[in-house]
């Protein structure tokens, strides 16, 4: 396929700024290493397809609208295992530079080079692994379709902010998570520039809806596999399959390094763990299980054992933290609030008692401002107390995903002068969140996983949005703003009974039963490595137990968790 289309315009990429260029360049080096290794393995492979097993679907469609490295690698492993073991025909459907908006790159930083690069690597990867594929540009007159949709969008004008219905699909609602991620904002301003971006997303969504139906009619798959399920191309595909009665497998990175998590017929996040929780709620962990969990949690405390390390360095020393904050932690009782990233799919549409995460942060600060009154002015309900607001490090750590509308922006708009008892810990700070948890009275979260870890440490946790650990009995989940404020007022706040043990059981179940390790491939900073001599090795059920488990779950349409008993 020739050289990557990136090379003619290297200065166009360097122009945005050096950290992004360095991040992209190191990722490309890793991708090229992985592709070169895949080519060598392919040369040794025969790619023999046995007769179709009657216990399997005849054809599986993999919808891969963007290059995401490890995700396509997992999909290709699953595809070859299905083919080599059971004769299943697998087919890949991808973008082909048809979409006018993408949740992977911001448009002004994407341009022709990054869009072409994405399509180049995805096509090359599928060709290298001898997998059949087509892209959206190969289905009819796409340009004519684009023009028709554009006229409809122009006619709607500013009314697009209220919604856009295309063939009975509310596309404005379906692009929500991707649109928010693209702008890195939550309170989307109704400006002409943002309206142009919205039109691009709605145009892309309408194209996906039309073309995905065409590929379903052509390929007639018995099963569809796609990533995550919340980004707009996959969400539209998921809804189309639901209406047509086609089962769908969704997948995403697991919380543990080297793991994948999967779900049936719904987005992966928040993790669907109800089946496992029926067993683990009353299951006492064995000594071995407790050791495994403690080892993992200890690693998380220092930024290890995770897919992404947000903390290059961590300061756990109390005296050093006090010096940074210019206060003594034990001078006044304090609570800690942990934010999420506003555009994260773990937050999108998970609000409960507050309209948004920003509203929750600001209301919490307002409540704590009443804890700052001198004792002779304060009511009996408000004894003096501090609030630490720990801003999520991901707001600034990822060069390509730096948040535009940050938590600090929202706080400063609402509080030009911050209450003296409210301390903001910015995203670049290396202060250990776990030291703050150790010393605080209670922890306040939206959907952050650190709420689960705080419960394991025996701290009372107030949770204000829906997450995978909601309703499990170890967090306090207020039903209204008034109930939330009453909970914050309590000085002697206690966690629910047995919450520490329940949290440990849930954490072990989530991390070690719903996160499936795959040993035939690994990932590191955009690089992927196959641990195979030949792709023919995938015929062997014993090669990768996690992969074999996934194949069995697809075969019998079982939940994707590992053995619970």
Radius of gyration from the alpha-carbon trace, in angstroms:
25 Å
How can the largest sheet be summarized? 7 strands, mixed
H/I helix tally: 20
Number of strands: 16
Helix content: 40-55%
Principal-axes shape call: globular
Fraction in beta strands: 5-15%
Question: Which tags fit this structure?
Answer:
565 residues, 7-stranded mixed sheet, 5-stranded parallel sheet, globular
Question: Secondary-structure blueprint of this entry?
Answer:
Layout: H1 10-14, H2 18-43, E1 59-64, H3 70-86, E2 89-94, H4 107-128, E3 132-135, H5 142-156, E4 165-166, E5 169-170, H6 171-174, H7 176-183, H8 192-219, E6 223-227, H9 232-244, E7 248-253, E8 259-264, H10 274-280, H11 287-301, H12 318-325, E9 334-338, H13 357-369, E10 386-390, H14 394-397, H15 407-414, E11 422-425, H16 433-439, E12 443-445, H17 450-456, E13 461-463, H18 481-489, H19 499-513, E14 516-517, E15 521-524, E16 527-530, H20 545-556
Parallel strand pairs: 1-2, 1-6, 2-3, 6-7, 9-10, 9-12, 10-11, 12-13
Antiparallel strand pairs: 4-5, 7-8, 8-14, 15-16
Helix pairs in contact: 2-4, 3-20, 5-8, 8-9, 11-19, 17-19
What would you say this structure looks like, in words?
This protein has 20 helices and 16 strands. It is of the alpha/beta class and 565 residues long. The strands form four sheets. It has a seven-stranded mixed beta sheet with strand order 3-2-1-6-7-8-14, with helices on both faces. The chain is globular and about 70 Å long. The model is unreliable at 3-22 and 375-381 (pLDDT under 50).
């Amino acid at each position: 396929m020739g050289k990557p289309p990136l090379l003619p315009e290297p200065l166009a990429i360097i122009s945005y700024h050096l950290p992004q260029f360095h991040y992209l360049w190191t990722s490309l080096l890793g991708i090229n290493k992985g592709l070169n290794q895949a080519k060598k393995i392919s040369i040794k492979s025969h790619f023999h397809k046995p007769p179709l097993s009657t216990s399997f679907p005849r054809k599986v469609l993999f919808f891969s609208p963007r290059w995401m490295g490890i995700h396509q690698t997992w999909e290709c492993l699953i595809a070859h295992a299905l083919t080599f073991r059971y004769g299943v025909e697998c087919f890949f459907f991808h973008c082909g530079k048809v979409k006018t908006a993408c949740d992977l790159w911001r448009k002004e930083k994407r341009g022709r080079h990054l869009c072409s690069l994405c399509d180049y690597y995805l096509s090359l990867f599928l060709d290298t692994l001898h997998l059949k594929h087509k892209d959206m540009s190969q289905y009819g007159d796409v340009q004519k379709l684009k023009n028709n949709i554009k006229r409809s969008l122009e006619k709607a004008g500013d009314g697009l902010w209220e919604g856009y219905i295309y063939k009975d699909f509310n596309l404005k609602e379906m692009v929500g998570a991707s649109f928010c991620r693209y702008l890195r904002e939550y309170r989307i301003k109704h400006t002409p520039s943002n309206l142009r971006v919205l039109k691009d997303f709605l145009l892309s969504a309408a194209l996906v809806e039309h073309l995905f139906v065409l590929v379903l009619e052509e390929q007639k798959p018995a099963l569809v596999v796609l990533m995550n399920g919340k980004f707009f191309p996959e969400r539209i595909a998921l809804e189309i399959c639901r209406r047509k009665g086609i089962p769908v497998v969704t997948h995403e990175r697991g919380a543990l390094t080297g793991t994948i998590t999967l779900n049936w017929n719904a987005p992966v996040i928040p993790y669907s763990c109800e089946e496992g929780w029926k067993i683990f709620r009353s299951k006492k962990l064995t000594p071995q299980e407790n050791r495994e969990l403690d080892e993992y949690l200890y690693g998380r405390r220092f930024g290890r054992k995770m897919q992404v390390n947000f903390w290059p360095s961590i300061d756990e020393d109390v005296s050093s933290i006090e010096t940074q904050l210019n206060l003594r932690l034990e001078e006044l009782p304090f609570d800690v609030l942990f934010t999420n990233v506003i555009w994260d799919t773990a937050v999108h549409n998970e609000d409960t008692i507050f309209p948004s995460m920003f509203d929750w942060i600001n209301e919490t600060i307002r409540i704590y401002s009443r804890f700052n009154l001198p004792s002779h002015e304060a009511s009996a309900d408000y004894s003096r107390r501090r609030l630490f607001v720990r801003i999520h490090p991901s707001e600034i750590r990822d060069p390509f995903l730096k948040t535009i509308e940050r938590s600090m922006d929202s706080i400063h708009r609402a509080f030009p002068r911050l209450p003296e008892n409210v301390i903001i810990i910015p995203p670049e700070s290396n202060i250990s969140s776990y030291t703050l948890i150790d010393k605080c009275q209670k922890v306040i979260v939206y959907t952050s996983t650190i709420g689960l870890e705080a419960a394991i440490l025996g701290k009372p946790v107030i949770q204000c949005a829906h997450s995978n650990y909601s309703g499990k009995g170890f967090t306090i989940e207020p039903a209204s703003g008034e109930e939330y404020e009453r909970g914050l007022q309590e000085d002697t706040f206690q966690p629910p009974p047995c919450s520490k043990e329940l949290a440990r059981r849930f954490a072990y179940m989530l991390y070690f039963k719903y996160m499936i390790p795959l040993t035939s491939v690994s990932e590191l900073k955009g690089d992927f490595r196959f641990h195979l001599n030949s792709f023919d090795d995938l015929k062997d059920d014993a090669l990768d137990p996690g992969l074999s488990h996934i194949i069995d779950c697809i075969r019998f349409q079982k939940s994707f968790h590992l053995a619970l008993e």
